[in-house]
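Appendix B. Extra example for self-study. Work through it before the problem class; the solution is given directly after the inputs so you can check yourself.
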Amino acid sequence: MNKLLKEHLVVAQNASGRNMNVPLYRFVGEKPGPKVYIQSSIHGAEVQGNVVIYQLIQWLKTLPICGEVLLVPNCNPVGTNIKAGEYTLGRFDPVNGTNWNRGYYYDDAFIHEFAQSIDDEESTESIKSRFRQKMKQQLQARLSETWGIGLAQHLNLKLQQLAFDADYVLDLHNGPVSTRHIYVPEYAKASASLFNIPHVIFMPNVFSGALDEATFCPWWLLTDLVSSKRQQPIDFAVEAFTLEMGSQEVISFQNGEYDAKSILTYLTAKGCLPESSTLPEQMSRKAVTLNNYKTLFTQQGGIVEYIAKPGDIVKKGGVLARVLNVDNLDTDRATTDILAPCDLVAILHFPSASVLSGTQLYKCFTEYFELQ
Amino acid sequence: MNKLLKEHLVVAQNASGRNMNVPLYRFVGEKPGPKVYIQSSIHGAEVQGNVVIYQLIQWLKTLPICGEVLLVPNCNPVGTNIKAGEYTLGRFDPVNGTNWNRGYYYDDAFIHEFAQSIDDEESTESIKSRFRQKMKQQLQARLSETWGIGLAQHLNLKLQQLAFDADYVLDLHNGPVSTRHIYVPEYAKASASLFNIPHVIFMPNVFSGALDEATFCPWWLLTDLVSSKRQQPIDFAVEAFTLEMGSQEVISFQNGEYDAKSILTYLTAKGCLPESSTLPEQMSRKAVTLNNYKTLFTQQGGIVEYIAKPGDIVKKGGVLARVLNVDNLDTDRATTDILAPCDLVAILHFPSASVLSGTQLYKCFTEYFELQ
Amino acid sequence: MNKLLKEHLVVAQNASGRNMNVPLYRFVGEKPGPKVYIQSSIHGAEVQGNVVIYQLIQWLKTLPICGEVLLVPNCNPVGTNIKAGEYTLGRFDPVNGTNWNRGYYYDDAFIHEFAQSIDDEESTESIKSRFRQKMKQQLQARLSETWGIGLAQHLNLKLQQLAFDADYVLDLHNGPVSTRHIYVPEYAKASASLFNIPHVIFMPNVFSGALDEATFCPWWLLTDLVSSKRQQPIDFAVEAFTLEMGSQEVISFQNGEYDAKSILTYLTAKGCLPESSTLPEQMSRKAVTLNNYKTLFTQQGGIVEYIAKPGDIVKKGGVLARVLNVDNLDTDRATTDILAPCDLVAILHFPSASVLSGTQLYKCFTEYFELQ
Amino acid sequence: MNKLLKEHLVVAQNASGRNMNVPLYRFVGEKPGPKVYIQSSIHGAEVQGNVVIYQLIQWLKTLPICGEVLLVPNCNPVGTNIKAGEYTLGRFDPVNGTNWNRGYYYDDAFIHEFAQSIDDEESTESIKSRFRQKMKQQLQARLSETWGIGLAQHLNLKLQQLAFDADYVLDLHNGPVSTRHIYVPEYAKASASLFNIPHVIFMPNVFSGALDEATFCPWWLLTDLVSSKRQQPIDFAVEAFTLEMGSQEVISFQNGEYDAKSILTYLTAKGCLPESSTLPEQMSRKAVTLNNYKTLFTQQGGIVEYIAKPGDIVKKGGVLARVLNVDNLDTDRATTDILAPCDLVAILHFPSASVLSGTQLYKCFTEYFELQ
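Solution. Structure tokens for the complete assembly:
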């Protein structure tokens, strides 16, 4: 059966001078195969992924794998433990506002340079292996900087050292109040239907700091460079996704089981689970390109009832939310309706009823289409 | 018809040196009658009361009243506007941790002294009027202190100056994740069934700083002192309640209408609404004395699924919550069930899935009984 | 020489499910003698006490003691590690606003009851020993509560279990921006001059939740009860102090050495350091009773220059601070001076230039007198 | 004499639904001349600039100007009013971590396109005027976005609408614990010596979101494009600077006067103050290019004494800071010295004694040189 290796990775030190570490659960199959990396809770309030990993671990105790599956729950021991009032201030470093999911490494120039080093004979496996090695040297160099690096970036690079070894990388997140959705790089479009997730965002080859991008952008660019040089497609078979599995600040063991199964379905299709034959569910899957995944900001402050629920389809002009203004309760300006600017699917909304102007009220699919 | 007077009361000044004020909506009936005072959102994240007041205002535009109804929504302009992450840090002053609902004034000695000034002939109306006048002098003296007073206390006293004029005082709150419940002073037990609220906590004559207590404790003690002196009961007909109308950080216009009706029902019974004949709903109302309204604290930290929902009846030994420990996902210590220490009704639970040890996980009715 | 025993005490568990502990440094002398307990940083931003304990440890490596000295630096591993912006939010639990130094145990009734158990023959030593034992049973009972207890209270009781064994208890704090001052119970007035601290506050026998009070109040009351019963004074020789050693959010190894020496001077006088002959410094020591240690609150919001520095003597009408109002920079209301309401010594002031109305601007000695 | 026009600009709405506005003080001279824009406190805890503006206003009441000076103190009414503990959480939006000084507008493509519209005959004045008009259309278009924009960006764009009209733009900031320093675009190198500021950072033509860059980058690029096209230099005479005038969270009226004078000296040199003849002070001015202005991050957590003070010159290997580790107070790992990695000037350090690993401990000039 699979072997389970368990260790802890130090990623920071707190103000008491104590190490803060991350648990690593590494399942090694008896047979060779692809490597899988799954982490959760880089944003400290997005905790459902930990339950998904718990459920995956229950499966992997008995379900043989080919290759390796590395599971890293609660991968941000700092962000998980910052309370501000009753809630977890998990999205950014409370000291400086740095988003915990924006400090991964990517360097366009490095990849171009590496591509130069590939001759036409080199096998895909050899390229992959050399690229990983070079990339990890880059990561190590940054981690060893004389002047040091920031807390969030240090955490990100330590995790990226683990993730960059993998062929399949899943970063488990939650939205504020949210329905399930997944970010999929355009080149891996076919994999979108391998998960049981009804809302899909297709990502271009643009890096803005997140783990999925830090994984797929280098391989994507390398693929393009080598393919173009060789005049024939090369396929590194590396994929990376951000999965948003419902709302932050709540967990559900039952939902966790559902999402674990969805991930097992994907891994089955990728040949990681030789004895599994689970197939993706039949469901409507709606998709958008990233530029059509839009944020609706409030124009005014007040108290809000969220009328459109995550997953709801709203027609142009339909009511998304109703804002109460306490200074005008006796007039017809007591309430203002916020309307859909176009046909849309409400994917997530802000988690508090109190908003200032300029608040991200809803994120919506516009110009969406059905996946086949 | 009722007259509506609208003004703003300055209660603080912010760091920009600008006044922060509270809107006052005062309905004055054509006929004399009792005074009613209703405020909401002294805890800044507990915003549903503003919707209830909005709905009350819609009613009071056409429903004649006797006496006066003073409505004070969003009564804490500081607490309403402190964000810490996406949520509102509304329960305490972010500077010093002072609970916004613990700085009202009560002075046992002052009431004993006042009671001395009452002779056996003085009418109930005269006592009420003199007591209010003296009490407001006390409040003004504190507000005029040479050395000043703290922000929360200043806010509380400014509101108490308004509330102490009233015969019926309702302070509208929400729990974290909560079912409807109401705090009722024991002497007003009969009024518990006049609201459409299924969970009732009976309060003793003990002051711990909140507005309801700051209202009923003085009158209760005065009642006892005069009754005992005169050897016959005196009734000042003053009542005060804290209504907890569901969960913080969400609003619902529909629920607001339900709770507005519930309040109108109470006011109807008290003779404030001569043309209303609305009666309380038939429902099971469970009650406890305050000492049996218990808080269950966590013994460990971790991530929690709240299995018992607010309002659920749980038998001794039943599962309330399940805690996940990320360092033991592969062992049988991965999850720990938190069990009901006795038969109970879960009234509210903590609003975040992430808890440290010593967190107020649930508040529960124990030794509860059915109200008739 | 002294023996050093080092261990860690678990006091909480964080949201990752991990133990949070406090380091204990216990020096045991070769000869018997009194027990000393010194803790620091119960308020997480007040870190200078940790340096003082560091300096004490350097001394105690070579300076023989009688009895025991237990040093507990960084005694609040939760509060030390909550950042909100660049500063440490160390004064209260960020979840609920509970001051970390208000949850120690004291029960008047328990002490009266215990006093009943003392017969006229019982020796002082025996009473002390039995009282400590009973008290620790009380603490254990609270820590073992079926329904649990809150995080701050749990921490406090765990520390109190250690502190209640001691004869001399020092709780090391800092003010916001502050000069050195010390809280001394009135019965230990004579000890005020044994420290090198120029400002002294004399405390009455009133418990409001802090460690010093939780130590001296029980012994004080017991002393009074037994003395009164026996018609002759009994002396338990237990003393407890809160030392405020300058400002929060800064440390200085040099100041730490000064304050360590001051504590060694006290311990020398108390017979804990047989080979030390250090004597208190000659200095002016100003003192007040607690009711004359007054807080000046702002009446307005704005930006403040603190003109009176901690330690400054200001005459009635002298300028303490100047407030800038950004909306009136062109008028003579641009600045407002805040004046001393009476002759005073400024002991500490608020640490931020931005204040709302109702901010604790200064704490001041009024009606102060010179200690002889 | 100068005319003073005073108004308020609405920049946001809070959760009470109330407008939040910024005071504008506009001095208009009798004679034409350049326009000056000075704002302060975009970071809410950096309040000294408000005092500088106060002092400037006192001067401008009697000192004639040519052209216009627009002064915008406290330009961030949201950030100024977020307390987290006693300090102001002023650097980023507490909801999402967005730095308040990173959302100004710059679009390379727009400038290239505009440059195309300039023919060889067009006068500098005409180009300036048209460019401003077009730029303001761009800003307005963003502010009018159907889907809205975020709070910080909205604030930034509203201010930029004012600032882009000006020839001289000064953004007044403070460091955490800091000495005076100034950011100067390389093309305006000559102006570095016109201020009384001893530390100068030369900025390249790279936009990263701040107001100074949002001002000088467009003009710089336009200058380059037109100069290159016309084969002769064009000079738009627009300059923009960020001035860091000491430490956040404190104000000093005396320092404010010093810095106001420094600004008047600059404006005198630029011909804005025809009756002023004030000259810059003789002083050593040290300068670096931006890439040599380095941040030293902590490698460990603990409690820190900042031994190098802002402005101190430290040789390679010199001690910058000493870190205390509370778990090792009895060993020689109790303290760790943090050493200068090279010769440097310490410009600013972190404002709290408690640090995690990855904290920005110091920002330092390296490879610095003396300005002539």
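Self-check: The longest helix of chain A spans residues 124-143. If your reasoning did not lead you there, revisit section 3.
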